Amino acid sequence: MVKIMMLTTACVFLLFGNEQQVSPELENDCLRCHQTHNIPSEIIYRRYLLHYSSKETIKKKMVAYLTNPSKADSIMPPQFFDKFPPKEPNKLTQERLQQRVDEYILYFDINKKLYTPKEDK
Predict the structure, then answer these.
(1) Which tens digit of pLDDT belongs to each residue from 38-71?
(2) pLDDT tens digit string along 73-89?
(3) Domain limits of the chain?
(4) What's the pTM?
(5) Which of 44, 52, 61, 98 is found 20 to 30 A from 72 (Cα to Cα)?
(6) Would you give the end-to-end CA distance of the chain in angstroms?
(7) How distant, in Å, are the alpha carbons of 10, 26, 41, 51, 89 from that of 14?
């Protein structure tokens, strides 16, 4: 079931792309580094979504990890860190960090990308 959900999600991302505009703050504070190091943001978000499912739990886990990152607390598998650099502790204020995580979740939210056909009555 999980594999089917992941495949469906990947297809939706490929077919419809990401139409949501990224905020300059999210780009500057987060995504620029992801792009520089070729860190797959969408895949990371999908791992959080599959593992925690609740956006509120995802937010709490992301903020906790970004505040004090460690491989042991990461949702990514150990081999991920063979290719990508470990995260340094974030220097944003807690308020700003929480705002950026909210924006990150909103930007990669798959609910806006899913198409649900209307039922015939």
Answers:
(1) 888 888 898 999 999 889 999 999 999 999 999 8
(2) 899 998 988 888 778 88
(3) 23-110
(4) 0.71
(5) 98
(6) 30
(7) 6, 22, 14, 21, 32
Residue among 61, 22, 24, 63 at smallest CA distance from 42: 22
pLDDT of residue 33 exceeding 90, the answer is no
Tokens 């300059």, residue? 24
Quick one: which of 113, 22, 13, 73 has its CA closest to 30?
22
Q: What angle do CA 66, 72, 76 make, to 5 degrees?
A: 70
Q: Which residue pairs, CB below 8 angstroms and at least 24 apart, start in 91-97?
A: 92/29, 94/63, 94/67, 96/29, 97/63, 97/66, 97/67
- Residues in CB range of 95: below 8 A, 6 or more apart: none
* Amino acid, single-letter form, for residue 98: Q
